[in-house]
Write a structure and sequence with these properties.
Order of helices and strands: EEEEEHHHHEHEHEEEEHEE
Radius of gyration: 20 Å
Number of strands: 13
Helix content: 10-25%
Structural class: alpha+beta
Number of domains: 2
CATH architecture of the largest domain: Roll
CATH topology of the largest domain: C8orf32 fold
Mean pLDDT: 94
Largest sheet: 7 strands, antiparallel
Low-confidence stretches: none
Length: about 290
């Protein structure tokens, strides 16, 4: 499938800002099932510099600075990608989760060592006892890794309500567990916390969903905005994506932007501004299939 992504971020300031410096994570990755065909950034007013770099997770980020007074800042990212459905192992054929946790802790093979960095708590994802207690219902002893993970994301989908007003970017896993409400970021953070509590490797994936689904398919929660899901490391196979917001294994309508330990590593736009007074923020995302 070939898709065009338009992601526009607009800041409006109540008084002129004298300087704005930001890091953008808006260029989709090239992966085994996704190929970046084109990517363009338009920034108004024009920045004094715009510099790309690759972070420690392999994501492409752009840093820019506007150094003259401005009362608006508009960032528009336009990309085209080609996607294909991933190959997913049969859930029952994956090793039991205890064996996987022991193998990761041993770190005897390079892929396991790379994955092991995603076993630990991170700045936005604590691993509280409540997360382990919630996870254990899906992972009784001897449960195969992927069967347990599918059970976990299915329970999150059933037990938690999608509510845009319930949380902020700083909402903790404990708070989400208590309120049983949140958005895709919260459900991804919760699922990752549960998996890490068992010694499993799980990373946070940011991206997009196709805005208009193919004929006959339901519209997914999270379209028309940035989306987030989970990727679980399955030894001898690789990473398997799981979407707890929609209770599915992502296919070719999920577009990967970046991945990291949690949202803080892959925030689409982050930075500092000097002056500006109060500001308003608006974000528009559109993903459509193209030829």
């Amino acid at each position: 499938m070939k898709c065009r992504i338009l992601h526009k971020t607009m800041y409006r300031y109540s008084e002129p800002a004298s300087l704005s410096q930001n890091e953008l994570m808006l260029q989709p990755r090239t992966t085994g099932t996704q190929r970046l065909l084109q990517s363009r950034l338009d920034i108004v007013p024009a920045p004094q510099y715009l510099q790309p770099h690759t972070d420690c997770f392999g994501n492409v980020a752009h840093v820019f600075m506007v150094q003259h007074p401005h009362d608006e800042l508009a960032v528009t990212a336009t990309s085209t990608v080609a996607t294909a459905p991933p190959a997913t192992p049969a859930p029952a054929a994956t090793a039991d989760w205890e064996t996987v946790a022991r193998r990761l802790a041993a770190c005897r093979q390079p892929p396991d060592l790379d994955a092991y960095q995603f076993v630990f708590a991170s700045p936005l994802i604590a691993v509280p006892p409540a997360a382990r207690a919630y996870a254990q219902r899906s992972f009784p002893p001897g449960t195969s890794l992927l069967q347990g993970a599918l059970s976990l994301v299915g329970r999150i989908f059933s037990d938690f309500q999608y509510d845009k007003a319930a949380t902020t970017v700083d909402t903790s896993v404990d708070q989400v567990l208590a309120s049983r409400k949140g958005v895709c970021q919260d459900f991804a953070h919760l699922a990752i916390s549960c998996l890490r509590s068992l010694g499993l490797a799980a990373r946070y994936v940011s991206g997009y969903l196709q805005t208009s689904p193919p004929p006959g398919r339901p519209r997914l929660i999270g379209a028309d905005a940035s989306h987030a899901w989970v990727s679980l490391f399955v030894p001898d196979h690789g990473w398997v994506d799981l979407d707890p917001t929609n209770n599915l294994v992502p296919g070719d309508t999920h577009i990967t932007l970046a991945w990291g330990r949690d949202y803080a590593d892959v925030s689409p736009v982050k930075g500092v501004v000097m002056g500006g007074g109060k500001h308003t923020l608006s974000v528009m995302v559109d993903v459509e299939e193209c030829s």
